[in-house]
Amino acid sequence: MLLAILLPFLSFMVRGKIITGIICLILQFTLIGWLPAAIWAVLSLQNTRADKRTDRLIRAMRENER
């Protein structure tokens, strides 16, 4: 989370989203763009975590049906 706030572009790069990381880096080059880039990175990180959590729940529910 700290990485997403301090270095938003690197947060995308670490998660394998290279093109998105480059776009975020370009956005960060402007002083005004730093805040939107940080917000974008944090929201993206939260969405990724929520998707993984949802996938785990779906798998658990399917296993319980059997």
Automatic annotation (TrEMBL):
UniProt keyword Membrane present: yes
Cellular-component GO terms for this entry: membrane
Localization terms from the record: Membrane
Pfam name, any one: Pmp3
Keyword terms of this UniProt record: Membrane, Transmembrane, Transmembrane helix
Domain of life: Bacteria
Listed transmembrane segments: 26-45
Family recorded in the similarity comment: Belongs to the UPF0057 (PMP3) family.
Protein name: YqaE/Pmp3 family membrane protein
Phylogenetic classification of the source organism: Bacteria, Pseudomonadati, Bacteroidota, Flavobacteriia, Flavobacteriales
